[in-house]
Each structure stands twice: as C-alpha cells, then as structure tokens.
Design goal:
The chain is mainly α and 91 residues long. Helix content is 44%, strand content 0%. The chain is built from three helices and no strands. Helix 1 crosses helix 2 and helix 1 packs across helix 3.
C-alpha cells in the first residue's frame, strides 16, 4: 500500500547541525537515493508519530557510519550540546 501523493510547499532554511551527524545523514540519504531534505522530513514525520524511520538493516548501516565518523552522541545528548568557541586561527 502506498500513500497518495500530496502537494506541499518547501522553503529554504539555514539549519546548523553537528558536523559528524550531518556526515552520517548524508551517507544515509545517498544510500536511500533521496535528498537530505527528504530524509530529514521522513525522520521528523516518523518521530511525530512515535515511530522509527529506519528498519534493522538501515540501523546497522547507521551504526557503522557513526563508528566511521566518530559520532558518539546519543538521544540523551540531544538537549545538552554546546558549541566550542570558534577557531580564530582560521579567520
């Protein structure tokens, strides 16, 4: 069973996101052959309904990518993240 297509309006937004998390998300989107925006929409829509957006094989691949990119953050960290001071030597 497939969902009926729905017409929506998308907007461009500038979202800041943790660097390693973005790397993992990009790999997942590439693996699923969808855009990063489509992936994020799917994750959020699933979360809004209390569902997981990923099946077991996808979760295994995500775990591998988290290891590869050194992503050690968990859901418990989600509201406790603080940015380091900007590297002034790069300016």
């Amino acid at each position: 069973m497939t969902a009926k297509h729905k017409i929506i309006t998308r907007v461009q937004t500038g979202v800041r996101i943790e660097k390693r998390l973005l790397k993992v998300l990009k790999v997942v989107a590439e693996h699923k052959d969808i855009s990063l925006g489509d992936l994020l929409e799917g994750i959020v829509l699933h979360a809004f309904e209390g569902k997981t957006a990923f099946d077991a094989p996808s979760l295994a691949m995500i775990a591998d990518m988290k290891k590869l990119f050194g992503l050690d953050l968990t859901a418990a960290d989600s509201h406790a993240l603080f940015e380091s001071a900007p590297d002034k030597s790069a300016l």
